[in-house]
Specification:
Blueprint lengths: L13 H54 L9 E3 L8 E6 L21 E8 L5 E8 L7 H13 L15 E9 L1 E7 L4 E3 L6 E13 L2 E11 L9 E7 L6 E3 L17 E4 L1 E7 L11 E7 L5 E8 L1 E4 L9 E3 L1 E6 L11 E6 L2 E4 L10 E4 L4 E7 L16 E6 L6 E10 L4 E4 L9 E4 L17 E3 L14 E7 L4 H15 L18 E6 L7 E3 L2 E3 L1 E3 L1 E6 L4 E5 L3 E2 L7 E9 L1 E3 L2 E13 L27 E2 L8 E10 L12 E9 L4 E11 L5 E6 L2 E2 L4 E10 L4 E10 L7
Antiparallel strand pairs: 1-2, 2-3, 3-4, 4-5, 6-45, 7-43, 8-42, 9-15, 9-43, 10-11, 10-14, 10-42, 12-15, 13-14, 16-41, 17-34, 18-19, 20-33, 21-29, 22-28, 22-30, 23-27, 23-33, 24-25, 24-26, 24-28, 29-32, 30-31, 34-40, 35-40, 36-39, 36-41, 37-38, 38-40, 43-44, 45-46
Length: 734
């Protein structure tokens, strides 16, 4: 029987089809989800890149323009008015119009601002960051004009409307930097200074920033904003302040007592919530400019100290800025005699000098060696003046005295002593022991009063003051005397005469003080160049004999000539000359006087030939009163210099308590309207505060802070980028 094989043919079942379709759909859904996610990520990255690019371009534009701008005479303006943060700004720019590669400048050397650039955000869909340039900038535009222009630019809704913001003869060019939702803020950063330190120290000079200051008087206010967490108080300590076109410093402690030093009205002040004092810092550090500072003992936050600051003046009270040109018979010194009167701190003054005017080393001599004079020897010592190597007296003096020195271990006897001025032929007889002795024996050993055990003499004996002698700096003088070894009888007579002159008894002078066995030897100083320094019994010798030093009392005239001060103005109109002084009177007689004269010049070199009598035609140009001297006749020239003459009555040349003193000299003029910086040297201590500063209520601009954030819708949320930069305009136009 035949069998046939049957072939079985089968398809997908319905279940299989459903399952496989589901798998395919799941795979396709995963692929599509990944694709969509990738597309969204790419879109978000594109948005982020766009925002980053917009921010970078915008910030770079603003940075470039602002760094080439100025907060000064060019007058930046901000919108809206009276705000803390601003969303629009107007800045001046300068471009090179003559092709020399430099910014254009006017006749005074200041930058010519020939463009105005405005940045603002125009609210639209989306927002637009707009940069508009107005040119040529209206040269005489006032701050009101500039703000009007900025306000009108902000209010425009289209580019074409910007033409309505042009000032006289200006045209405009404007472009949209980017279009996106944007928040833009311009803010001057808040400048504060932390005066705290764990130790008492002098802080570094701190620059609060810049502002435009007009000529005349202004109110500088320091306000307590808080304190460091480690501080135990709210004090403010000020060493010096600089706030004027010339940059002249003002010492903090000179504000006390008010209107005293310097004179009214340049240094006045007031406080709210505290008290003022001046503090002597000389024991802490010599860094303090006048060894003192002003201290504001504040009650707490919001306490304020206001100093009146004149723009502009030069107050020379340290006598070192600039360095003095001449000091004849006077020096600048720290005077502690003022510590017993308000404000109870020492003061730097100019006053006459007394003291050593000459010593043997001035004559190029070696160290002293002994020389014996046994027989009578007439000696004339020559104090050489006008020599290219040797020096005569280094200062003037009305009275004079000579110190005589014996050789170490020996005695020396001098008599018939004279101080001679060869130029006039005047001879002064020198005496000893208040005029009671015309000779003196310097014993080999020191002798004392046995009743008081006080040393009477050593190896040097000084003559009495010669009242009739006037010593002149650099001149030649002779010191003549005779010497010899004395016999026992001569020593006995001398001892008796000395006791009588001193009012002593025999008990006051120990026996054997004067020994005839002592050799008569003087200290001599040999001149290394063999120049004749003495004549001994008619024979010239290159040596000085016994003359230890020449000392003078206060001179009749002393002269202090200041350095040359630069006002930083081409033609300042000088107003007043004032100074603070200490003059002396005995009854109706003025025995210590201070007078000052002044001159000006267009150049430093020209000051040498400038006239001293232009400001005052009489008395060689010297003003006698120290208050309110008009300088209307003084030429309007950039550089100024003064000279003080200190005069002392020759009858009182030995009186330390009657010397005249110059404490400061102030010259003022109306400063220009322009950009100035506030620079303050603060004291720092554990009890000091954090402070801010304003002038006439206006804050300082140390830089402009730009805060920009740009937004755009992404998926699933908004994307944004933010940038903050601080720019300090560099073209100050000073």
């Amino acid at each position: 029987m035949r069998r046939h094989n049957r072939v079985c043919r089968q398809g997908f079942t319905l279940v299989e089809m459903i399952v496989s379709s589901g798998v395919v759909l799941l795979v396709m859904a995963g692929v599509m989800s990944a694709f969509i996610m990738g597309l969204r990520m790419w879109h978000n990255e594109a948005i982020q890149s766009e925002l980053d690019f917009d921010l970078q371009i915008a910030m770079e534009n603003i940075r470039r323009d602002m760094r080439l701008s100025s907060v000064g005479v060019g007058l930046m303006s901000f919108y809206p008015p009276d705000a803390v943060e601003y969303n629009a700004i107007s800045i001046p720019l300068s471009v090179d119009t003559n092709g020399d590669g430099l910014l254009d400048r006017d006749d005074d050397g200041k930058i010519v601002w020939n463009k105005t650039v405005v940045y603002h955000v125009r609210k639209a869909s989306p927002d637009q960051l707009v940069r508009t340039v107005f040119t040529p900038r209206m040269s005489n535009a006032s701050p009101t004009d500039i703000f009007w222009q900025l306000s009108n630019a902000v209010m425009t809704s289209t580019q074409a409307e910007l033409g309505n913001a042009c000032l006289s003869n200006e045209t405009y060019e404007s472009r949209v930097i980017f279009e996106n939702l944007v928040d833009l803020m311009f803010r001057p950063p808040d400048s504060v200074y932390d005066c705290y330190s764990a130790e008492i120290e002098h802080g570094h000079s701190y620059n609060f920033g810049s502002l435009v200051l007009t000529g005349g008087m202004h109110s500088l206010t320091f306000k307590v904003r808080g304190k460091n967490t480690n501080s135990v108080g709210y004090n403010v300590e000020i060493d010096r302040v600089t706030l004027s076109a010339s940059g002249s410093p003002r010492e903090g402690e000179t504000y006390l007592p008010i209107n005293t030093h310097p004179r009214y009205p340049y240094y006045t002040c007031s406080v709210t919530g505290g008290t003022l004092a001046a503090v002597d810092m000389s024991d802490v550090s010599p860094v303090w400019k006048q060894r003192s500072q002003l201290r504001f003992l504040a009650d707490g936050e919001d306490s304020a100290l206001t100093l009146r600051v004149d723009n502009d003046l030069w107050c020379d009270n340290l006598f070192d800025v600039p360095n003095p040109a001449l000091r004849s018979n006077c020096t600048v010194k720290l005077d502690y005699s003022f510590t017993n009167v308000a404000p109870y701190v020492p003061d730097i003054v100019v006053s006459p000098d007394r003291g050593l005017a000459w010593v043997p080393t001035s004559a190029g001599t070696n160290s002293p060696t002994p020389k014996r004079f046994q027989n009578v020897t007439a000696i004339t010592n020559i104090i050489v003046g006008g020599h290219p190597t040797f020096y005569g007296p280094s200062r003037d003096g009305k009275w004079a005295r000579i110190g005589f020195e014996r050789a170490t271990g020996y005695s020396f006897y001098i008599y018939d002593v004279k101080l001679i001025d060869p130029a006039t032929g005047h001879k002064a007889d020198l005496t000893f022991v208040d005029g009671k002795m015309d000779r003196y024996y310097i014993p080999a050993t020191t002798y004392k009063r046995t009743t008081h055990e006080s040393t009477l003499t050593n190896h040097v004996i000084w003559s009495d003051w010669a009242e009739s002698v006037e010593i002149r700096e650099g001149q030649t003088y002779w010191v003549a005397f005779k010497t010899k070894e004395m016999s026992t009888a001569e020593l006995f007579i001398y001892e008796r005469d000395l006791r009588n002159a001193l009012g002593w008894t025999r008990r006051d002078l120990p026996p054997g003080t004067f020994r005839p066995t002592d050799e008569n030897r003087a200290s001599i100083w040999a001149n290394t160049e063999h120049v004749t320094m003495s004549i001994q019994n008619g024979t010239s010798a290159p040596e000085l004999v016994s003359v230890h030093a020449l000392e003078v009392c206060y001179p009749v005239y002393s002269v202090f000539r200041s350095g040359i001060f630069d006002t930083q103005m081409a033609a300042p109109v000088y107003e007043k000359l004032n100074w603070t002084q200490v003059e002396r009177q005995i009854g109706p007689t003025l025995v210590g006087d201070v007078d000052i004269r002044i001159r000006s010049s267009d150049t430093v070199e020209g000051m040498t030939n400038a006239s001293w009598t232009e400001a005052k035609g009489s008395d060689d140009g010297y003003f006698q009163s120290n208050q309110d001297n008009s300088l209307a006749s003084l030429g309007h020239r950039r550089y100024v210099q003064y000279e003080a003459r200190l005069t002392m009555d020759d009858d009182y040349s030995t009186r330390d308590d009657l010397i005249p003193k110059l404490r400061d000299c102030t010259i003022n003029w109306k400063g220009p309207t322009g950009l100035v910086d506030l620079i303050v040297d603060f004291g720092k201590s554990p009890s000091n505060a954090v402070i801010s500063a304003t002038v006439d209520g206006q804050g300082f601009i140390k830089g402009i802070e730009v805060d920009m954030e740009i937004f755009k819708r992404g998926f699933p949320t908004w994307k944004s980028v933010r940038g903050v930069l601080e720019v300090r305009p560099l073209n100050t136009g000073r």
